[in-house]
């Protein structure tokens, strides 16, 4: 669908494996959404520093979209971050992930930075989004 190759799959696999092996269970977490006992989505919160969490690995399988899983995962991640007293959440995404960008906007994230990057043999526009959790 997005024309990512095996290097993207390896990148995700390696980053999740690294996270699981070193995560601070009090400040970081991964959630997996299941439908009929099968994993259909995931999201993670990783610690950047004392004040900042990073939303990572946000995915809902195409056949499970439109059922509210993305919203449930996003709300879980934001609530977790608030409870851990993070002051902000950042995330990196690609400009062509239109539905995800709509969800980020819905939850109050704002676009703060863009950059071009070569990934999976294609030039992509990466975007950094940020959500302030305190006034």
Automatic annotation (TrEMBL):
One matching Pfam family: Acetyltransf_1
PROSITE patterns the record matches: GNAT
Keyword vocabulary terms for this entry: Transferase
Organism domain of life: Bacteria
Every N-acetyltransferase domain range: 1-132
InterPro entries found in the cross-reference section: Acyl_CoA_acyltransferase (IPR016181), GNAT_dom (IPR000182), NAT_camello-type (IPR050769)
Protein name in the entry: GNAT family N-acetyltransferase
Species the sequence originates in: Paenibacillus arenosi
